[in-house]
Amino acid sequence: MSFSQAVSGLNAAATNLDVIGNNIANSATYGFKSGTASFADMFAGSKVGLGVKVAGITQDFTDGTTTNTGRGLDVAISQNGFSAW
User: Fold this and answer.
1) Where is the Flagellar basal body rod protein N-terminal domain (predicted)?
2) What does DSSP assign to residue 28?
3) Contacts of 53 (CB under 8 A, 6+ apart)
4) What's the CA angle centered on 9, arms 53 and 12, to 5 degrees?
5) Which of 5, 10, 43, 59 could cross-link to 51 by cystine, CB 3.0-4.6 Å?
6) Confidence grade of residue 84 (pLDDT, cut at 50, 70, 90)
């Protein structure tokens, strides 16, 4: 295993910790949807792996619970859709 392979693994792990930290920091935020990092092997036409990379960060858009915040301007969207203000 080369140094660059190890560094790519550390960078991917650091990104995963960033995503997890963001999820924890926003866990009490109304309407927050958690993220999940996914990873992929780096192959450059060789049989030996060249490390790992973050393939993407996906958001969980499943319906959450509707909570009354007591604030008159808060809104919730149920089922499919986004809102632009």
Assistant:
1) 6-33
2) T
3) 8, 12, 39, 40, 42
4) 50
5) 5
6) low
Q: Is the dihedral of CA 36, 58, 64, 71 positive or negative?
A: positive
Give the list of residues 6+ apart from residue 28 with CB closer than 8 angstroms, or none. none
Q: Are 38 and 54 a contacting pair, CB within 8 Å?
A: yes
Q: Residue 5 corresponds to which tokens in the numbers above?
A: 């392979």
72 φ/ψ sector (left φ>0, alpha ψ -120 to 50, else beta): alpha
What's the pLDDT at 24?
Answer: 98
Neighbour-count burial for 39-72, b at 16+ CB within 10 Å, e otherwise: eeeeeeeeeeeebbebeeeeeeeeeeeeeeeeee
12-41 mean pLDDT: 94
Q: Which residue has the tokens 């009354």?
A: 68
- Residue 27 is predicted with a pLDDT of 93
